[in-house]
């Protein structure tokens, strides 16, 4: 039986998106003879790596969003990230804010490292793409910021949405991960992982203290065990927003009993500032 897509039967191998070994066989489009997206394929290290991402030949979507496979969870093509990054520097309100404090090269590096995209859902809006440590792209959170103050636009309503909701993808199954955790493969076990709540704060702190790996939960309720599992062997320091310390501190004590090497910083609690501030409010 002839299939639209099949694994390349030549001797050519690529670096695996998961283990980074040159043992990755990509899928071919048998009609055009071209490779599919860089992360669609199978690693030959079947017992040690087990990475295998199959194409879905029956899925078609217009405009921005294309899906690799519709199952639990839904995974999107990385092409969506690349498309959203185009024009980000010129038209993204958050990037305009960052350029007031950091150089163009620093901000450009952050855009590429954290996959900071742009959405026309609201003029100047930002997409914070969520890609896990295996480079699976789940979805993107769309948020609108003021280009001068860097604050979220909350009036006349909170400007926050999700890519899959904006484009009306049916039967979408969302799995969340820590924002920025796709950068884990670029760091070794000696790297201290710092976790904050806001994606914007993680980006800003990565620009100020780049030797650490900065990640974000995206919400105070997303500080949970399932999202921390990929970090089990790393040293972790969490920085809750002011007023959230007690809740996050209690959780870190629970996570310690599970074997995690994790600490909860009370740095913001000692500052005579208003409730809800975070590290970015202090350093910028």
Describe the fold and architecture:
There is one protein chain. The chain is of the alpha+beta class. The chain folds into three domains: 1-55, no CATH class; 79-166, no CATH class; 181-283, Dna Topoisomerase Vi A Subunit, Chain: A, domain 2 (3-Layer(aba) Sandwich). It contains nine helices and 14 strands. It has helices spanning 79-85, 88-91, 93-98, 104-114, 163-166, 199-208, 225-228, 245-257, 279-283; strands at 5-7, 24-29, 41-43, 52-53, 67-69, 75-76, 116-119, 125-131, 137-143, 160-162, 193-196, 213-216, 235-238, 261-264. The longest helix has 13 residues, at 245-257. Pfam families: DUF6371, Zn_ribbon_16.
Short key terms for the protein model shown above:
four-stranded antiparallel sheet, alpha+beta, 3 domains, 23% helix
What topology does this entry show?
Blueprint: E1 5-7, E2 24-29, E3 41-43, E4 52-53, E5 67-69, E6 75-76, H1 79-85, H2 88-91, H3 93-98, H4 104-114, E7 116-119, E8 125-131, E9 137-143, E10 160-162, H5 163-166, E11 193-196, H6 199-208, E12 213-216, H7 225-228, E13 235-238, H8 245-257, E14 261-264, H9 279-283
Domain Zinc beta-ribbon finger putative: 3-57
Domain DUF6371: 92-242
InterPro entries: DUF6371 (IPR045951), Zinc_ribbon_put (IPR047731)
* CATH architecture annotation of the largest domain: 3-Layer(aba) Sandwich
What order do the helices and strands follow? EEEEEEHHHHEEEEHEHEHEHEH
Shape: globular
Counting structural domains, the number is 3
Pfam families: DUF6371, Zn_ribbon_16
InterPro entries: DUF6371, Zinc_ribbon_put
Domain DUF6371: 92-242
Domain Zinc beta-ribbon finger putative: 3-57
